[in-house]
Design a protein that fits this description.
With 92 residues, the chain is mainly alpha-helical. The chain is built from 4 helices and no strands.
Length: 92
C-alpha cells in the first residue's frame, strides 16, 4: 500500500522505520543485567537528587520485573513502525 510521496516524505518515513527498528532491536537485547543496572541507577538517583522530577519513574523501575522493559521497547518499536508504514493512509 504505497502512496505517491515526495522525497522528504520518503526520508522521514525511512527515518521513522529506522527509529522503530532501533526500539525493536533494543527490546530484544534487553536483559536482566541491563534491568539491574537501571534499577541501581534509579536507587542512586532517588538517594542523591533532591529535586528529581521523575521519582515516580525511578520507583516504577525498581518495582518492575526485567521482562517489562523488554515488552515496553518492543511495543514502542512495533507502534512506530506501524505508524510509519501505514500512517499516511490512515491520516489522509
Amino acid at each position: 500500500m504505497l502512496f505517491k510521496q515526495t522525497g522528504i516524505e520518503w526520508i522521514f518515513q525511512i527515518l521513522l522505520i529506522a527509529i522503530g527498528v532501533f526500539f525493536l532491536f533494543y527490546g530484544f537485547k534487553y536483559t536482566p543485567e541491563k534491568h539491574q543496572k537501571a534499577r541501581e541507577q534509579s536507587e542512586v538517583d532517588l538517594r542523591t537528587k533532591k529535586d528529581f522530577q521523575y521519582k515516580w519513574l525511578a520507583k516504577f523501575i525498581m518495582k518492575t520485573p526485567w521482562w517489562s522493559g523488554r515488552i515496553f521497547f518492543i511495543i514502542i518499536g512495533v507502534f512506530i513502525v506501524f505508524l510509519a508504514v501505514i500512517g499516511k493512509g490512515l491520516f489522509q
